[in-house]
Each structure stands twice: as C-alpha cells, then as structure tokens.
Amino acid sequence: MRVIESFSPEETYKAGLELGQECVAGEVYCLNGDLGVGKTVFTQGFATGLGIEEPVNSPTFTIVQVYEEGRIPLYHFDVYRIADVSEMDELGYEEYFYGDGVCLVEWGSMIEELLPEETKTITIEKDLGKGFDYRRITITEAGE
Questions:
Q1: Could you tell me which of 66, 63, 103, 98 has the C-alpha nearest to residue 83?
Q2: What is the CA radius of gyration of the chain?
Q3: pTM: predicted TM-score of the whole model, two decimal places
C-alpha cells in the first residue's frame, strides 16, 4: 500500500502523472472517492503520464472514453450511472479489462464482481481538518 498526501489540485495531478508513468499494459485501476474529491484531476495527470495530450474529462454519459495516443491506450470508465452490470456486457468490457491498454474505472466498486482479480485500488479522500484542498490518496495492490 502506498499513501500520498496532496495539499493542492496540482499535487493530486502530479500523483496521477507519476502513476501514469509507472503503469503497464494490462493493469486495471479502480478509482474511488466522493463527488468533487479530485478523481478527474488525478485522471488528467494519469493520462499525461501516459503521454496523452488531448483533453481528458470524466466520461459520465458515455461510460467509457478511449485515448489511444499515449505510450499505451487508456480506457477511462465512469460507471456511476450504470443501472445494472449487464450494461458493462453490452460495452464489451472484457475487451478493455483484458486488452492491451490500462483501465481506470471511476466508481469501480459498483461493478466489483466484474473487475479482474489483480485490480489495484486508488482511493482519494478529503480531510477538512488538514485543509480544504488536502487529499489522502491510497493506492492498494490486489490482495492487500
């Protein structure tokens, strides 16, 4: 388990960037955190770490956004609005989860039963006692 303390959106972005530089094809990350906690900022940094230069936003209404211009493809999911896991079947999620890119799944706990066993978890939490912009970013390996 790795814990990163961030005191600004820029530091949250940098944490994502560093993880994006480290990740390898075939990895799946479950990105958890309340609304407004910085998941999109983290993801933007992650994409930059992969060499993706186009704008990255949360794919709330499309469920998955594909970015292929980086060193490996990024499959960015936001499953907050899915009503039933069968919607993931319709998307062909296995092609992404077991494909040649890296998956970042926002609200992944909603489809936990579909996530590969090796899925890593990134949890972003606020702690107002440490400041308005403070975020605790915890990265957990599968099985930890």
A1: 63
A2: 14
A3: 0.93
